[in-house]
Design a protein that fits this description.
It contains 13 helices and twelve strands. It is of the alpha/beta class and 344 residues long. The radius of gyration is 20 Å and the shape is globular.
Length: 344
């Protein structure tokens, strides 16, 4: 089975796990005399996250979902409005911050261009409506893994500053964005007040994300994390895996991007479905409207042939490339998909 559902299928290496199990640990849910975690490996990962993002402080999270929830609920209180697009993962999948019986936040939407970038006029209008937070996703999962160009980031920062509104960046795949854009991760993060990134996904750690921002924000976020049940005990083992990922696995993301471009290139002559002309990172979104199949049916019929994709709405499916997928499997995936489409 060639499983292209998600880069969360990336497996930790033996070297990563050996490094993790050798890590010193403590009670990450308690503070030392300096106000930091009592787990030295968690502290070391948080310090590394600060170096990579250019932020003053960082907080280890069990998941990216919790990292985003903590960020939104630290920036905003119940009933406040958050400006984002309706395809963002924090709204479309994670959701809970916007549930009236949970986070209680009110979404206000800006529109995306055909290329998946925020429309500046739409963002400006949203900021004028009295929102308390602007949320961005970089790279943008449902928009096909597109990154936010520096020019766009600068304009969004200017608009947000003019409105006095902070920016939170869902950077689950921050380092994919850095590689695709050619920008340093710290430069990307300089346009946001807070940023969340994952050490899992293509980086291969078994779990974990970092929420980064100012010292004052992270102190408040630590309180939010505790209230949401996010405190951990001997978390240093998983933090050390994350540290290994950040020190060793970022360069390998280049190969994921290359294989995504190769797979997309192999499918360019297909007529039945719409193939993106440009792939910027490791995500490919296919528009299958022309097949007259639902995304679930399309996926089920491909799966029995040995190719497993994931849904991205009722008429779109998603393919993600990651380190477990070889060049030969890219070729085979293209053959399976072409043969299936030729029989429709």
């Amino acid at each position: 089975m060639i499983d292209l559902r998600s880069d969360t299928l990336t497996l930790p290496s033996k070297d990563m796990m050996a490094f993790a199990f050798a890590a010193p640990v403590g009670d990450a849910g308690r503070q030392n005399e300096s106000g930091r975690s009592c787990d030295p490996s968690v502290n070391q990962l948080e310090d590394l996250a600060c170096q990579l993002t250019g932020k003053d402080a960082a907080l280890f999270m069990p998941s990216g979902t919790l990292g985003n929830h903590v960020a939104l609920m630290t920036h905003c209180t119940d009933g406040k409005s958050v400006l984002l697009d309706d395809k963002q993962h924090s709204y479309r999948v994670e959701k809970a911050a916007f549930f009236p019986y949970w986070g209680g936040l009110t979404p206000v939407f800006f529109k995306l261009s055909e290329e998946g970038l925020p429309l500046i006029d739409s963002v400006a209008a949203g900021l004028d409506s009295g929102v308390r937070l602007l949320c961005l996703e970089n790279t943008h999962n449902s928009a096909g893994g597109v990154f936010l160009p520096q020019k766009t980031l600068k304009m969004l920062r200017t608009l947000a500053d003019r409105a006095g509104v902070p920016i939170h960046m869902d950077g689950a795949r921050l380092f994919n964005a850095a590689i695709a854009s050619g920008m340093d991760a710290s430069e990307i993060c300089s346009y946001a007040d807070s940023v969340m990134f994952c050490t899992s996904k293509g980086l291969g750690a078994p779990m974990g994300s970092l929420l980064c921002g100012s010292k004052e924000f992270i102190q408040k976020a630590a309180e939010t994390r505790k209230l949401l049940g996010g405190n951990l005990r001997q978390a240093g083992f998983m933090a050390a895996a994350g540290e290994y990922a950040l020190r060793h696995n970022i360069p390998a993301l280049v190969e994921d991007h290359r294989r995504a471009r190769e797979l997309c290139s192999l499918l360019q002559d297909v007529q039945t479905i719409s193939i993106p002309s440009v792939v910027q990172s490791n995500i490919i979104i296919l528009d299958i409207t022309g097949t007259h199949l639902s995304s679930s049916e399309f996926i089920a019929r491909l799966k029995v042939r040995g190719l497993w994709l994931s849904e991205s709405g009722s008429s779109h499916v998603r393919m993600l490339l990651y380190s477990e997928i070889s060049d030969a499997e890219v070729q085979q995936a293209a053959r399976i998909l072409k043969e299936f489409l030729s029989e429709l």
